Amino acid sequence: MSEQSIRRLAEYLKNARRAVFFGGAGVSTESGIPDFRSTDGLYRQQWRYPPETILSHDFFVEHTEEFFDFYRKKMLFPDVRPNAAHLALAELEGRGILSAVITQNIDGLHQAAGSKNVVELHGSVLRNHCVRCGRAFQMQDILNAPGVPRCGCGGVIKPDVVLYGEQLPADAIENALDAIARADLLIIGGTSLSVYPAAGFAESYTGPLAILNRTPTPMDRRADVLISQPIGQAFAAVMALLDETPQ
Hints:
Order of helices and strands: HEHHHHEHEEEHEHEEEH
Strand content: 15-25%
Helix content: 25-40%
CATH class of the largest domain: Alpha Beta
Shape: elongated
Distance between the termini: 24 Å
Oligomer: single chain
Number of strands: 9
CATH topology of the largest domain: Rossmann fold
Radius of gyration: 19 Å
């Protein structure tokens, strides 16, 4: 880990009051949730259909039982806990440094860590609803149901996650763009910035930029700080430096 880069990020944070964090799957890997596109990622695994196909709206409608077989096995992790990155971001918000977390993740770990202003671009596995009557259900209802989970009215229970072929929630887009427009520091972490339209949200940002990711991203050349170590370790080191002097 580059000590110089860690110190530089800590200095930026000391001067920030509207920092925004934009994160992806790499934020949760240290909690035990696999990412998608790394060597051991979900999309590299062999299934009857490609995972991108299974996690599509059309597949959900046409092959609902196979969708839920995959979804329960590979998308639900009821026992995971927030890691050092989640906890650090919640702490930064509590200190009045971080104004928002924008996440592509659907695991709810930012809220579990204590973050309040979380923009979920792709929804959450913690929320589910009946496609017929709209009744709300919990993740455990999906896990406990045999085969296709159904509401008492007979409707299929659909996870409130954005599948391929579905639009991002309009309010999430608006809130994310507004937070980035107001930011005095943008931290991008745990994402390869390869999934659009979400990856394009940061492209108009022109202020101080820090990128924490294990592999290169298309925005690396614009970054003021580049850190390629595990994001939880990096944030733990940054928080230790922030604690050396009063905020």
